[in-house]
Amino acid sequence: MITIHLITFTSALQKQTSTYKLHEVLLSELEKFFTVKIVDYKNINSLNENDFKILFIATGGVEKLVVQCLESLPHPMILLTDGLQNSLAASLEISYWLQSKGMKAEILHGEVQTIVQRINLHYNNFKAQKAISGKRIGVLGTPSSWLIASGVDYLLTKRRWKIEYMDIPLETVTKRYELITEDEVGEQTATIAKKALACREATSADMIKAMRLYKAIKKVCEEEKLDAITLSCFKLIDQLGTTGCLALSLLNDEGILAGCEGDLQAIFTLLAVKATTDQTGFMANPAQLNIKKNEILFAHCTVSTNIVEKFILRNHFESESGVAIQGILPTGEVTVVKCGGECLDEYFVSSGMLIENTNYVNVCRTQVRVKLDHPADYFLRNPLGNHHIVVMGNHEDALNSFFASNGCKRVE
What does the DSSP 8-state code read for residue 365? Predict the structure, then answer.
């Protein structure tokens, strides 16, 4: 059961009656869903960063107390009030002051069921923020030259999200690759081949090379203590004669989030999706758009094998080399999401339905057609760049709440 620490503000004029007794109707209802701990605002320093905190505005006349404690209070600010003792009036004043200073605030008031739903969403945001904080993203090589709108300001991003991008020369990977022998990867290569529904263009030699690259990248992740990576994969084709598609798929399977083409915004979106939904997303190119049907085709040459029903080992679409993954994803509800901007302060999100896996010859290997619930002309009017993330299930509310709570602007 979720534990809520209610940082309680009461006026000095309040009669000496226990807070619980005065607000028993609301608090007893909340105790059916949560473990509720009342903490006087004077004892706020007894709590730590792992405690989930909500402000309980128990009476009026506490506005200045909240301002005085501002540095010690959680952000975004969640204000719970039942309206008794002029508490709603005080909450309105506090909320307006916070928002006038550029801070996020929300008042929880009214029907208990609605309050419970909002608390659960805020708790999910809290957990996701904790999960992202301190994560290290390795940039192996440099972003692909065509990703002209997908850059990230490392310093400002670190301030906003408490994550760290680390530039790692591609040479670090290629040197590791040269040290890995065929014997080291032979058994695992055979295991993966057996799991595949079929193996088409990719040869045994291609598989060995792709697995050596996977081992090399994994070793770099271990040495640098990386939680996620984005790979300058196209440069490796010339240098090593193989692609990163299989390596990225396997790393995602193992919980090391991995993205293509050095896309800095897409790999963060994958990280945010995992933290918020506990799902591994599919990073893909929008390949075809049908405005009339509100449908879009997403495609890429790699996907985590953990999220597909079956997969075929192919070669890489553009270069016709290496090993790619053609995954068959389950039809049903999905969410399309992207966090963009140099400070990662904008986002798009839409629920939808994955209605078809396609097999066009002129598109990347894994292909899914999605019917969006929001207007698909976003991709023509105001897109947040190229790559977007498709995640299984309807997580629009959770992702919308998470990004909004972190001061991001929703793009429609």
Answer: S
